[in-house]
């Protein structure tokens, strides 16, 4: 059995997937790299096959009809034979030194008979045109270099969230919790890092800059104008997160730290949905914002109160044009500070 399965979802990724795959190869025979060709119509499948032929003990290729990022991740989980599982998008890459340190640590833990549910490391915004790279760390929030549980987690700072870039899950945990991402939908990485959390009991944080998250392509899903054009999918994911929280509420409420973190995550996701709807400056989208907040209120009044009466909820619901301008200005400040979009 492999130590780590790494799924690389690829859709028309020929222009950049080599850099990603090459960065993963130093893991050697401890790792299986699952290149998931999600119905590409460029030379992606040829490149994937080339790597499989060169590294048959490391590279696995899954060719499937196009189903979107979530579908490709699902296929990766289905075909994974590693004890642990990670997703690395085909336009991103990893730092070799951090990669080797993480693999060595997982091996060390396993040899000592210890198993963890989630391994966390830092990620770096590789933003096009910027020399100074923003590093997202979890220092002072998560204990370092030790196995810990939710009770040991301290307060997450604003802008400090566990994202797909920062996590490695125990593979069977993803299967046991029934994780299944929706097909033909963007922004499902939020589901990937949200739904398993009530099932995560043990964690390990290594303060290394492992994942390099590229931002800069005009067609990238996190580009602001692209997000606005796909706002209905953002709303769909937002609602799915709310639905999941409610469905798992009794399980979540048994752990106060998990509940607090998940509510805070819903807070920022709903804020992003709201500000993009405002920023589009379209009347129909302002109605969609009202409908989203009403949806949450109808589903769970207590959750709605927590979100609506918080700082972000209040900021996203200021009345009139002036209120919407203040909301957008606050969002722009956060963009400059945290370097997203």
List keywords for this structure.
341 residues, alpha/beta, Spore Coat Polysaccharide Biosynthesis Protein SpsA, Chain A, 2 domains, 10-stranded mixed sheet, 14 helices, 10 strands, 18% strand, disordered C terminus
Give your account of this protein's structure:
There is one protein chain. The protein folds into two domains: 2-215, Spore Coat Polysaccharide Biosynthesis Protein SpsA, Chain A; 224-338. Helix content is 46%, strand content 18%. The chain is built from 14 helices and ten strands. It has helices spanning 17-24, 44-54, 69-79, 96-111, 171-176, 189-192, 224-229, 231-247, 249-252, 256-279, 283-299, 301-308, 311-315, 320-338, and strands spanning 2-10, 31-38, 59-64, 82-87, 93-94, 118-127, 134-136, 147-148, 167-170, 203-215. Strands 1, 2, 3, 4, 5, 6, 7, 8, 9 and 10 form a ten-stranded mixed β-sheet that branches. It is globular, with a radius of gyration of 20 Å.
CATH topology of the largest domain: Spore Coat Polysaccharide Biosynthesis Protein SpsA, Chain A
Q: What is the residue-mean pLDDT, rounded to a whole number? A: 91
Uncertain runs are 337-341
Number of strand segments: 10
- The level 1 CATH classification of the largest domain is Alpha Beta
User: What name goes with the CATH superfamily of the largest domain?
Assistant: Spore Coat Polysaccharide Biosynthesis Protein SpsA, Chain A
Shape: globular
Which structural class best describes the helix and strand composition? alpha/beta
- The domain count comes to 2
Radius of gyration, rounded? 20 Å
* Biggest sheet architecture: 10 strands, mixed
Helical run tally: 14
| Second rung of CATH, namely the architecture of the largest domain | Alpha-Beta Complex
Residues in β-strands, percent: 15-25%
- Distance between the first and last residues' Cα: 38 Å
């Amino acid at each position: 059995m492999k130590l780590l399965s790494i799924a690389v979802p690829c859709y028309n990724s020929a222009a950049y997937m080599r850099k990603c795959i090459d960065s993963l190869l130093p893991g050697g025979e401890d790792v299986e790299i699952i290149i998931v060709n999600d119905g590409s119509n460029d030379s992606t499948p040829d490149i994937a096959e080339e790597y499989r032929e060169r590294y048959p003990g490391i590279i696995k290729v899954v060719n499937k009809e196009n189903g979107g990022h979530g579908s490709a991740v699902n296929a990766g989980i289905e075909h994974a034979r590693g004890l642990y599982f990670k997703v690395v998008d085909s336009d991103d890459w990893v730092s070799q030194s951090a990669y080797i340190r993480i693999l060595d640590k997982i091996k060390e833990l396993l040899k000592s008979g210890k198993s963890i549910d989630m391994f966390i490391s830092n990620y770096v915004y590789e933003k096009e045109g910027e020399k100074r790279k923003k590093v997202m760390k979890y220092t002072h929030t998560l204990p370092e270099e030790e196995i810990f549980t939710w009770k040991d987690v301290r307060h997450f700072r604003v802008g400090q969230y566990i994202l797909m870039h920062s996590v490695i899950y125990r593979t069977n945990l993803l299967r046991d919790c029934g994780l299944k991402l929706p097909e033909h939908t963007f922004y499902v990485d939020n589901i990937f890092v949200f739904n398993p959390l009530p099932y995560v009991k043990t964690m390990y944080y290594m303060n290394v800059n492992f994942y390099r998250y590229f931002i800069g392509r005009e067609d990238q899903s996190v580009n602001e104008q692209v997000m606005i054009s796909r706002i209905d999918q953002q709303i769909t994911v937002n609602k799915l997160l709310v639905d999941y929280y409610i469905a798992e509420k009794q399980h979540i409420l048994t752990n106060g730290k998990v509940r607090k973190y998940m509510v805070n995550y819903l807070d920022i996701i709903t804020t992003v949905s709201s500000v993009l709807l405002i920023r589009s400056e379209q009347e129909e989208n302002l109605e969609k914002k009202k409908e989203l907040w009403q949806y949450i209120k109808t589903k769970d009044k207590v959750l709605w109160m927590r979100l609506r009466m918080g700082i972000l909820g209040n900021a996203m619901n200021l009345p009139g044009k002036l209120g919407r301008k203040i909301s957008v200005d606050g969002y722009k400040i956060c963009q400059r500070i945290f370097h997203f979009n």
